């Protein structure tokens, strides 16, 4: 029998699914809408249909477990708790609801950013690295902290929300209700907001002067910065400065060997990495300087979300 773990990444708009073997190969995958499924039981029945479609594509397929990455997922309880971008409000006992739909198959749930850290450890560049932090720079900022080969969950299962540490005093409003959170500056959304600020500060010509915040994407900021747009370059400079300063603070509590950056914003390459590393070294305590690497995720060219969710199962299985 060919053994696979089901990796499920639940996002606000779509849910991605795939079958992943112990070597990180994902021969089949699919997706279904998350949005529009206000009934969780009906949603899980559709997940079962998709999983069955995937397993039917592989001869002699055995499912060893189901790993799920989801916003506000509680590893200890198997619940989704007050996720702002999902239609299921309050506390949702997802693992309990999953058991009768997949009888006899173990299932594990965790926060989506923690799942990415598992993926980095099992399938990515963190193999053999005992102490590391993953930072996912997407629409928001997610993070996972690994200490002595173990993910840090904290007392109630929600440790490591580094995106909601304060980066700027009395700064931008965040969806969590606080002000100045790191994710409001260092994410694709944060980069766009910074660009608009730079347009007000700088007189240099820019294609973005006639556009509103919903008229362009982060990829366009990268493209224009590479083409010499001074406003776009300044936006990356500020983003990297704030990110590097915050990463230097994070080093103080876990002293990782590596900090891995993942997510769409990382595709901007040195536009982001150069100012981030420069600011990072500037703000580190002397005892840490030159000892912590900042690197791109080893899963950038793969479906990291599915691999990360499946890694939850393979970590336990092995």
Automatic annotation (TrEMBL):
The family classification in the record reads: Belongs to the ROK (NagC/XylR) family.
Which spans of this chain does the record mark as coiled coil? 37-64
**What name goes with this protein?**
ROK family protein
Q: What is the lineage of its organism?
A: Bacteria, Pseudomonadati, Bacteroidota, Cytophagia, Cytophagales
| Family matches, as SUPFAM superfamilies | Actin-like ATPase domain (SSF53067)
Pfam families found in the cross-reference section: ROK
Keyword list, A-Z: Coiled coil
Cite the InterPro entries for this sequence.
ATPase_NBD, ROK, ROK_cs
Q: Highest taxon of the source?
A: Bacteria
């Amino acid at each position: 029998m060919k053994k696979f773990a089901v990796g499920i990444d639940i996002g606000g708009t779509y849910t991605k699914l795939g079958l992943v073997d112990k070597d990180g190969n994902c021969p089949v995958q699919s997706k279904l809408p998350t949005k529009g499924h206000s009934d969780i039981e009906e949603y899980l029945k559709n997940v079962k249909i998709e999983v069955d479609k995937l397993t039917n594509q592989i001869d002699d397929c055995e499912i060893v477990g189901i790993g799920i990455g989801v916003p506000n997922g509680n590893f200890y309880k198997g619940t989704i708790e007050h996720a702002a971008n999902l239609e299921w409000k309050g506390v949702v006992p997802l693992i309990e609801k999953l058991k009768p739909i997949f009888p006899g198959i173990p299932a594990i749930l965790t926060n989506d950013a923690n799942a990415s850290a598992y993926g980095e450890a099992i399938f990515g560049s963190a193999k053999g690295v005992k102490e590391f932090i993953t930072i996912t720079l997407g629409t928001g900022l997610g993070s996972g902290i690994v200490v002595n080969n173990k993910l840090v969950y904290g007392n109630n299962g929600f440790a490591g929300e580094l995106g909601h540490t304060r980066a700027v005093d009395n700064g931008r409003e965040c969806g969590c209700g606080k002000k100045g959170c790191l994710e409001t500056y260092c994410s694709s959304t944060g980069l766009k907001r910074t660009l608009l600020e730079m347009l007000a500060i700088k007189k240099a010509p820019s294609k973005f002067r006639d556009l509103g915040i919903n008229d362009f994407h982060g990829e366009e900021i990268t493209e224009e910065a590479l083409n010499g747009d001074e406003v776009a370059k300044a936006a990356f400079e500020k983003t990297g400065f704030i990110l590097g300063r915050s990463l230097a603070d994070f080093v103080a509590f876990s002293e990782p060997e590596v900090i891995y950056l993942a997510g769409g914003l990382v595709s901007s390459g040195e536009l982001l990495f150069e100012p981030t590393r420069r600011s990072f070294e500037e703000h580190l305590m002397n005892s840490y300087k030159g000892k912590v690497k900042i690197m791109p995720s080893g899963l950038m060219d793969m479906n990291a979300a599915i691999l990360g969710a499946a890694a939850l199962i393979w970590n336990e299985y092995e």
